Amino acid sequence: MKLLHVVGARPNFMKAAPVIDALNRSNAGSQILLHTGQHYDENMSRIFFDELGLPTPDANLEVGSGSHAKQTAEIMIRIEQYLLEQHPDLVIVYGDINSTVAATLTCTKIGIPVAHVEAGLRSFDRTMPEEINRLVTDQIANYLFTPSPDGDEHLLNEGIAQEKIFLVGNVMIDTLVRLLPKAKERNVRATLQLPEQYGLITLHRPSNVDDPDSLVDIMTTLNQIGDDLALVFPIHPRTRKRLADMDVKTPNIQFLEPQGYLDFVALQSDATVVITDSGGIQEETTYMGVPCLTVRENTERPITITVGTNTLIGKDMDKLKQSVQAILTGQYKSGKNPELWDGQASNRIADIIVNHL
Ligand code: UD1
After folding, report:
1. Ligand 1 centroid distance, CA of 161 (Å)
2. What separation in Å is there between the alpha carbon of 39 and the centre of ligand 1?
3. What is the SS3 assignment for the chain?
4. Is 237's C-beta closer than 6 angstroms to any atom of ligand 1?
5. Is 236 a catalytic residue?
6. What is the pTM assigned to this prediction?
7. Which residue is catalytic, options 39, 204, 236, 356?
8. pLDDT level of residue 122 (50, 70, 90 thresholds)
C-alpha cells in the first residue's frame, strides 16, 4: 500500500506524528508526507517536525496565507498535480483546517480514497470556518476515524453509513502521552521566571481576534485578571497583527513568541488555569487535569466539558473573572479522562488500515 499523509497547519502535526509511527510499526506500506505550507513560520511548523520526530515532508506545496477561497483553491490546484504523479492508494487527512478539506475534495474528484482522522466533531456553528471544513470532509471521505462517541452520533445523524465510521480515540493524546515526560523535564516555568501559580493564554479564533471590540474586551479583562495571577501569552501571528493595530494597554500580561510543542505542553501542565479558544488545548488540558476556560460560545469537543476540566465562557467576561476566582480558591471541578484517550488511538487506526482497508 502507498499511503499519503496531508498536513498543513500547527494542530495537524501532533495528530499525524503518532499515526505515521503506528503505520511504520505495522509495516502497512510506504508512506509519503505532504505539507501544504499553510503554516510556514519556523515556530508554527518546522519546530514541531523536529520535536515530534516527524519525517521531513517529501514535498511542500508552499501555499502560504490568503483568503479562505484563495488558500483552499491553491491547495487543490497544487495537490492535484502531486496526487496524479504519486498515485497513492489512500490519503490520510487530519482535523479541520483548510488543507484538510482541500485535499479531501481533490482526492474524491480524482477517485483516491480518503481517511479522515478526528472525524465527526461538530460545534453546530456554521460561522466557524472549521465547521464547514468538518462537514464537507466527513460527507465525502471514505473512512472516518472518530475520537469520541459524540463523533459517531453526529456522522450517523448526517446519514453516513455505519461501516465507514471507526471509533478509535484521540490521536492528539497519543502524542501527549508519549511526550509529556520529556516536556516536564524542560522547566520552562523557571526559565520564564513565572511564579508557582500562573495562567496560560492562547487566542487566535477570527471570532475573537478579528473583531476589534471583542479583542479589546478580552484583553482588558485578561489584564484585570493579571492583577491577581501572573499571565503568560504565547501569541499567534494572526493575533499579533491584530493587536499591533490597536491601542490597548496590558502591562500584566507577559507575551511570548509561539512556543514549540514541548515548551507549550510544559507550560500547560504547570498552569493554574488555561484560557484559550483553541480546540486541541481543550483536550490536552482535560487529559492533564488542568482547568481550562474556553473563550467561545460553543465547542466541537463537548466531552471536555461533560467529562473533563473545560468550561465555556463565551463572551461573558464577568464569567471569565468569576471562573478564574473559583479556580484560585479551589472551587473548580476536577474532571476525568475520556475513554479511549489512552495513547493507543493511532495503533487502532493502523490496525484498521492494515486489516480492513
Ligand atoms: C489555522 C486553522 C485553525 C487552526 C489554526 C492553528 C483554518 C481555517 N484554520 O488558523 O483551525 O486552529 O490554524 O494555528 O485552516 N500566519 C503567519 N505565519 C504562519 C501561518 C499564519 O504569519 O506560519 C498568519 C498570516 O497572517 C495568516 C494568519 O496567520 O494570514 C492566519 O493563518 P491561517 O493559516 O489562514 O489560519 P490560522 O488562523 O492559523
Report:
1. 33
2. 6
3. CEEEEEECCHHHHHHHHHHHHHHHHCCCCEEEEEECCCCCCHHHCHHHHHHHCCCCCCEECCCCCCCHHHHHHHHHHHHHHHHHHHCCCEEEEECCCHHHHHHHHHHHHCCCCEEEECCCCCCCCCCCHHHHHHHHHHHHCCEEEECCHHHHHHHHHCCCCHHHEEECCCHHHHHHHHHHHHHHCCCHHHHCCCCCCEEEEECCCHHHHCCHHHHHHHHHHHHHHCCCCEEEEECCHHHHHHHHCCCCCCCCEEEECCCCHHHHHHHHHHCCEEEECCCHHHHHHHHHCCCEEECCCCCCCCHHHHCCCEEECCCCHHHHHHHHHHHHCCCCCCCCCCCCCCCCHHHHHHHHHHHHC
4. yes
5. no
6. 0.97
7. 204
8. very high
